[in-house]
Amino acid sequence: MMKLGLFGYGVVGGGVGRIADGRDDMEVGRILVLPHEVDVDPRTVTNINDILTDESIDTVVEVMGGIHPAFEFVSSALKAGKNVVTANKALVAAYYKELIALAKENNVTFRCTAAVGGGIPWLVNLSRVRRVDTIESVWGIMNGTTNYILSSMTAQDVDFADVLKKAQELGYAEADPTADIDGHDIRRKLAISVGVAFDAAVEEANIPTFGIRNVTSADIQAFRNMGRTCKLLAYGQMTPDGVAAYVEPTIFTNDRLEASVGTNYNMISYKSNNAGIQSFYGQGAGRFPTAYNVVSDCLDIIAGEDSFYTDKAEPTALACGSVSHAYYVRTNVCDEFLSSITEEKGEGWVITAPVSVEKMHAWAQKQKEIDAGVFFAGIQ
Ligand SMILES: NC(=O)c1ccc[n+]([C@@H]2O[C@H](COP(=O)([O-])OP(=O)(O)OC[C@H]3O[C@@H](n4cnc5c(N)ncnc54)[C@H](OP(=O)(O)O)[C@@H]3O)[C@@H](O)[C@H]2O)c1
After folding, report:
1. Can you tell me the mean pLDDT for 352-368?
2. From 5's CA, which of 14, 94, 250, 370 has a CA 20 to 30 Å away?
3. What is the mean pLDDT of residues 149-178?
4. CA of 22 to the centre of ligand 1 (A)
5. Catalytic residues
6. 98 pLDDT exceeds 90?
């Protein structure tokens, strides 16, 4: 019988507790909470050592979130010889190399399937396909909040600010939506995905990232007229120079599967040499979908999984200079660079010739200083 120590008992932790309590192959031993939460369950403790020194607890589930003290707590658990399952993408993206190494050194298993795609079994299938295939690329709609916003704006003629407010009321968006709408959340998931796909440890903070904060209903109308749908896309591909990984709004033709991913759903795909394209669709967040993936990781450990999804985490450069495509760009200050790559002009927007992802992101970051509302979207 697997005995769990939970770090955190909020949305996901509570879900893990509920699922585990109904099973006969695992049980929750102790739950680490903050002092104000001690009354939520008879198994709560407020001192991490009560879990670390409890030899009957073989596996820690970290669902408290944040980077510190989660990193210190998870490191202590690995050093204490406990397997760790986490849903914490911020932690894994920031300490990817270190956590894999620590698990290996201590002969324990480290898993984080719920950290990318919530309830979608993405990382496990990514590691499975790698047993046979070489991955060419990974990409996806990996953030439910932004997908809800973009889907709503596409379905009705509504402004970004109004949809964001509604998403907050429905619980799809946080009170501070920055991490979602500026692409930081999806960037963390991309960093972990390219890690597992390509054995690569990349500097998450350096991944070129442009969010959807500036998208307007006029942009969405222009996309409608083009027969396209806008999604916030995370993309990663191995190139001879390193990993081309980036996050940007992308307009897909309406016949692409990505275009029909509605409301807060996620869809994540890989392309590999034998399997071809395989896509995984489902709930990217939520108490029980996410807890389901955490419990599944625990079952994989019970079944004998004894490592991370890959043993290698080679520090790898980001190489967005080697991938190019056309862009939709809207700005009220057209400069020499934009003029030099413009192929088609619309009402307040242009379509560019293929331009490197690195150049477009660098230009847009600078352009924000003179036009804070600048918006662009990659064209697929
Ligand atoms: N919710 C989802 O749908 C979802 C989906 C995928 C992944 N995740 C990830 O899962 C993790 C947990 O998310 P969540 O939504 O369950 O968050 P949550 O509801 O805020 O739960 C976290 C719990 O941990 C507690 N906590 C914080 N610091 C602690 C500490 N030092 N010691 C003990 N307890 C502590 C919090 O207490 P206070 O509330 O008092 O701070 C809270 O009760 C995050 O990393 C998140 O990114 C969540």
Report:
1. 98
2. 94
3. 95
4. 22
5. 189
6. yes
The domain defined by 2-111 carries CATH number 3.40.50.720: yes
For atom 30 of ligand 1, the residue with the nearest CA is 34
| All structural domains of the chain with their residue ranges | 2-111, 123-286+317-379
Q: How far is the CA of 245 from the centre of ligand 1 (A)?
A: 28
- Could you tell me if the CB of 285 is within 6 A of ligand 1? yes
Q: Tell me if 32 CB under 6 Å of ligand 1.
A: yes
Question: What global pTM score does this model have?
Answer: 0.98
Q: Measured in angstroms, how far is the CA atom of residue 122 from the centroid of ligand 1?
A: 21
> Which residue's C-alpha comes closest to atom 18 of ligand 1?
10
Residue 102 Cβ < 6 Å to ligand 1: no
Rg (the chain; Cα; Å):
22
Q: What is the pLDDT of residues 69-91, one digit of tens each?
A: 999 999 999 999 999 999 999 99
CB of 195 shorter than 6 A to ligand 1: no
CA of 308 to the centre of ligand 1 (A): 22
Question: Model confidence over 223-282: pLDDT tens digits?
Answer: 999 999 999 999 999 999 999 999 999 999 999 999 999 999 999 999 999 999 999 999
Does ligand 1 lie within 6 Å of residue 362's CB atom?
A: no
CATH tag, 123-286+317-379: 3.30.360.10
